[in-house]
Hints:
Blueprint: H1 5-25, H2 27-33, H3 38-49, H4 52-60, E1 64-69, H5 74-80, E2 87-91, H6 103-117, E3 125-131, H7 133-144, H8 148-151, H9 155-164, H10 176-196, E4 200-204, E5 211-215, E6 219-225, E7 233-238, H11 241-256, E8 259-260
Parallel strand pairs: 2-3, 3-4
Antiparallel strand pairs: 1-7, 2-5, 4-8, 5-6, 6-7
Helix pairs in contact: 1-2, 1-11, 3-4, 5-6, 7-10
Amino acid sequence: MKIDFESIVGISALIALIVAIFSELHIRKLMSDVNGNIYKSFEILAKVEGLEKVSKIISDSLSTHYVGNFPANMDEIIKLIPTANRSLVIVCDVPAFGHFSNPEGFRDYNLAFQNLLNRQKNRPEVTLITYDLQRRLCNSANQFGPSFEEFKKGFIYKHYFEYWNSDKKEPDVKTMEDFCKWVDNRHRRFQADLDEKGVKVYETSKDLRAFLWIADEKDAIFSFYNYGSENREVSFRTNDKKLIDSLLLIAKEAQNLSTRKEDFDLH
Length: 267
């Protein structure tokens, strides 16, 4: 397939603009003001900014709707996975999505994967494109912050060990770097398990501008980071064919910039 780079740039620019509007004008409040109708919200924003074209595109795409910010978006992703019968394409920053930030969500995410891959009939071809080890470690360090001692005082850290370890035993690590490596071991084990069960796993150090879960090329969840001091992963679900075709092009380009991962070092 010939990649239409203009389509990729166009859809990326459009969604970047939408996400920027999300952050700046606190879309949740605006959505509430118009009875939760996200398309009407975008139409209002577009008219305020004089963006008639954006307004028309959003208004015409009634099959696309907001499904939450990470980690709340995991519920919808978990519902999407079992619907795949022919193909499931995933572009995501880490293999074990939500393992640290949303343990309960990852439990169900993993279960959905296992059920899918253990099917006797209608078992889809699954492709996972994710960051490589060094890029994941760098991202984790940026996400967790420089001070390991301060990070350990936070709710997410405490909840993680309360959930996964019945004895609440923490790892014997002293630095943030060592802790990131310890967490990433779970990602590598999950990734190795998927590979063993026939998932085509690719890794990249290049920027993944969008996270995608696309089932049978007809139903998709896509996530982008918004802007500002509290950047968050904002997610939408769509069955709009034109939009999904553009998302598939983004996934194909990410795959072209990736390397097939076949050697899993779990030490």
